[in-house]
C-alpha cells in the first residue's frame, strides 16, 4: 500500500519558497568579475564545508530512508513532502542554489549554482520539454560553456558517445526510466570512465520509483556523495524533480560551493 504524507497547500507553499529563494543570484552574477581560474593552485577554499552539509542532510533525512524501507513508490511520492525541511537545516540553507525558469509553465524550474572561478563548463541535457530554455539562460551567464544533448535509447542507458573519458559535467538535466545507481555509483558507468558530474537535476516518474529508491540508498551508502536539495512535484504531482550536488568531489566543491 502506498503511503502519502503532507498537504497540497504545504507542498505548494514550499515550492514557491524554493522558486523565490536566491532567485537574484543569476541576475547579479558576472563571469568576468571572477578573479581566478579553476585549478587546484588558484581557487579558494569553499564558502561552505562539504562535510558539514553531508552530515546535516544525513541526520535530517535518515528517518525517511528507514520510514519507507522496501517501499519505492511511497519513498518517491513522499520525497518532496518530507525532505524539503532538510534544506532549512543549518549550513544547508546557506548553499547558494537558485532557480532557473524553464518554459512558460507556472512553477516549472530547475536549480543550479554558478561558479566561483573561471573555466570552461559543460552543460548536458536529455530531451526534456522546456529544459533547453533553462540551460540556455544559464549558459548566457557563463560564456565559457558548451551545451550538448544526450541521446538516450528507449528503456536503456545509452549516452551515444556524448561523453569522453575524464570529462567534468558541470550541469546535467536528466530524465527517463534510467538506472541511476548504475550510472553514478562507485565503479559505475561514469566512474569507470572518470566522468564527474558536479550538479544535476533529475526528473523521476512513478514508473521509475524503484531506480530512484536504489539511487537514494546508494547515496546513503556512499556517505552522501550527492547532496539532494530542492525536491518538488510538478505536472499534477506525476513527476518528482530533485537537484543534486556532488559534495564528494574536491574540484566541484571548490568551483561551486
Question: In a few lines, what is going on in this structure?
Answer:
This protein has helices spanning 8-20, 25-28, 50-67, 72-83, 131-141, 180-184, 189-192, 209-221, 250-256, and strands at residues 98-101, 109-112, 121-125, 145-149, 168-169, 171-174, 196-197, 199-205, 226-234, 239-246. The protein is of the alpha/beta class and 257 residues long.
Give the total of domains: 1
Task: Give the radius of gyration.
Answer: 17 Å
Order of helices and strands: HHHHEEEHEEEHHEEHEEH
Distance between the termini: 40 Å
Q: In percent, how helical is the residue content?
A: 25-40%
Low-pLDDT stretches are 3-10
**Beta-strand percentage?**
15-25%
**Largest sheet properties:** 6 strands, mixed
Number of helices: 9
**Helical/strand content category:** alpha/beta
Estimate the global geometry from the Cα principal axes. globular
Number of strands: 10
Overview of the molecule:
The protein is α/β, with parallel strands linked by helices. It has one domain. It has helices at 8-20, 25-28, 50-67, 72-83, 131-141, 180-184, 189-192, 209-221, 250-256; strands at 98-101, 109-112, 121-125, 145-149, 168-169, 171-174, 196-197, 199-205, 226-234, 239-246. It has a 6-stranded mixed β-sheet with strand order 4-3-6-8-10-9, sandwiched between helices. A two-stranded antiparallel ribbon has the order 1-2. It has a two-stranded parallel ribbon with strand order 5-7. A hairpin with a 4-residue loop joins strand 9 and strand 10. Helix 3 (50-67) packs across helix 4 (72-83) and helix 4 crosses helix 8. The protein is globular and about 50 Å long.
Amino acid at each position: 500500500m502506498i503511503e502519502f504524507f503532507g498537504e497540497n497547500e504545504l507542498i505548494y507553499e514550499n515550492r514557491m519558497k524554493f522558486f523565490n529563494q536566491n532567485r537574484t543570484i543569476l541576475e547579479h552574477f558576472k563571469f568576468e568579475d571572477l578573479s581566478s581560474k579553476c585549478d587546484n593552485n588558484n581557487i579558494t577554499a569553499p564558502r561552505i564545508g562539504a562535510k558539514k552539509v553531508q552530515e546535516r542532510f544525513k541526520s535530517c533525512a535518515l528517518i525517511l530512508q528507514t520510514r519507507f524501507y522496501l517501499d519505492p513508490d511511497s519513498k518517491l511520492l513522499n520525497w518532496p513532502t518530507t525532505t524539503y525541511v532538510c534544506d532549512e537545516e543549518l549550513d544547508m540553507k546557506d548553499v547558494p542554489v537558485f532557480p532557473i525558469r524553464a518554459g512558460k509553465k507556472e512553477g516549472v524550474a530547475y536549480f543550479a549554482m554558478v561558479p566561483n572561478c573561471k573555466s570552461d563548463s559543460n552543460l548536458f541535457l536529455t530531451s526534456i520539454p522546456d529544459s533547453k530554455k533553462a540551460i540556455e539562460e544559464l549558459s548566457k551567464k557563463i560564456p565559457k560553456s558548451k551545451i550538448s544533448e544526450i541521446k538516450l535509447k528507449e528503456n536503456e542507458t545509452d549516452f551515444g558517445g556524448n561523453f569522453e573519458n575524464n570529462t567534468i559535467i558541470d550541469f546535467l538535466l536528466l530524465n527517463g526510466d534510467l538506472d541511476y545507481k548504475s550510472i553514478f555509483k562507485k565503479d559505475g558507468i561514469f566512474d569507470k570512465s572518470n566522468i564527474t558530474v558536479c550538479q544535476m537535476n533529475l526528473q523521476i516518474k512513478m514508473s521509475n520509483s524503484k531506480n530512484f529508491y536504489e539511487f537514494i540508498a546508494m547515496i546513503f551508502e556512499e556517505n552522501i556523495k550527492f547532496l539532494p536539495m530542492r525536491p518538488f512535484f510538478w505536472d499534477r504531482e506525476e513527476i518528482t524533480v530533485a537537484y543534486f550536488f556532488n559534495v564528494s568531489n574536491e574540484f566541484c566543491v571548490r568551483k561551486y560551493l
